[in-house]
Amino acid sequence: MMIIMRKEKAITRPSAKEASHERIVDAAARAIRRTGYDGTGVADIMKEAGLTHGAFYAHFASRDAMLAEAADRAGAESNAAAASIVAAVPPGQALQALVQAYLSEQHLKNIETGCPNSALGSEMPRQSPEVRLAATRRIKEMVDLVARQCPDWGQPSAHERALVTIATMVGTLMLARAVDDPVLSNAWCAATMKSLAGASAKTSD
Length: 205
Known about the structure:
205 residues, globular, 72% helix, single chain, 0% strand
């Protein structure tokens, strides 16, 4: 019995290398949202993770491989946060709750821990195929999550509405962060919330 228990611990406990890998990916996932793909350097990430620059290639074949994992992690974190919002409200209120949270002042100001699509959308066309593939997979998950909150889920119209809703939210947040006028920034978010809420009410009728 004691031998079995020891084996189970060995299986569930991450190795030192796995733990280090997680720290690197976590640091990179924050960094790409904070400073962009081009502003994310290997040396800075390794330092933030508490590791030497020379240890990098024990974990990744290339910088792009690290960025791809970072994109995947950032997207997964964002989708998990959205799923938790959905789970916390009645089904009929889920879509509105998602929009409000996405366009909230808290999300607006916390780019480092927020949605990577609004933080990095303009940079994506210039990234490597592996980075774009990782990001695209998480974006598709986001589309599916939003579509599932639509009253007509399962119909093509729900998928189309999810596409428009996400594009509107992401575009709004990008512009709201781009301007240096807080009044305009807040007005953009408020106008989009009002518009999407109106569209939601029409669909529910």
